[in-house]
């Protein structure tokens, strides 16, 4: 077997399962799961109807490059969303089977296995970045995202010897788990570093449409605004969160044509093109914004309720659908919440890596506000009550 497989870390949910082993939740309460970040709002009819009407497409192999209609719909969406010239639908856009797949595949296409490249990733982070780097034979370099930096990467923490070896940097805005959003200034800093050291920026923007204030500034938008074209940047996004369709497995990679072209070649072999059926439904989804506004409003309502219940001390994230709740001992509190209130949350420790004796995820619980409003309200009340009660023993 590929020895690099041995380097992969257990997935956070595997660690959660171990933590909760033997825990006995109270009788008489319904279980409430805010652990996994799977969107649960109903998928809008615009997608479901299209799938039903196009079942005959199951008899067709999908084009890896995507249909022209889909590439154009994505390109036009990017142009509208970010108020920039539409990227070239043929040279700068490819549909992918969700952000996760594309994040992983992009690393395999970008990195040269013969050189031990360094790959930057935020810490805490979405674990696919790390696995993608490790399986490409690269070294993941964990960049802390401390509270004092607004939970954005502290690039100053990367040592001088590392920079020349950096070939790829994953950035996530809005971020999972913290919900931090990068401003134009933050993008400027990343692109300055990318241009100085010649690395690719993989911008994971799958939460771009779930936000509490203004629409987040996107990587492509920032790159154009900074007058540097789309060089060395690839934006990855999907319909999973935007359109509450995580099972559709549909997204895109868009950006630098010099990366997209070899990435397409890689993908011919990788074989992860969204099905023809999915491609048709995705055209409709990217062209419709009404359901996206409604979807976003549902998350905003949950954050309003959280703010009401927890008061002004609670930090409401700029984007995404997670609360990043400071707690004294996250593993202990996650188990306690499960045992005493039958609410599942995820310890931040499982989303971070310890570097220099410090795991920046430690001391936080990630609470995914993905179930419907009533479940979220009830779960938040139980969380508040449990955390307010001192731990015994
Ligand atoms: C930060 C981040 N990136 C990517 C993904 C993958 O999303 P998808 O593959 O459904 O687009 C997720 C999903 O949970 C995520 O949290």
From TrEMBL:
One of its GO terms (molecular function) is succinyldiaminopimelate transaminase activity. The keyword Ribosomal protein does not apply. InterPro entries: Aminotransferase_I/II_large, DapC_beta/gammaproteobac, LL-DAP_aminotransferase, PyrdxlP-dep_Trfase, PyrdxlP-dep_Trfase_major, PyrdxlP-dep_Trfase_small. Pfam families: Aminotran_1_2. The keyword Iron does not apply. It comes from the Bacteria. Its cofactor is pyridoxal 5'-phosphate. Keywords: Aminotransferase, Transferase. One of its GO terms (biological process) is lysine biosynthetic process via diaminopimelate. Residues 32-380 form the Aminotransferase class I/classII large domain. This is Succinyldiaminopimelate aminotransferase.
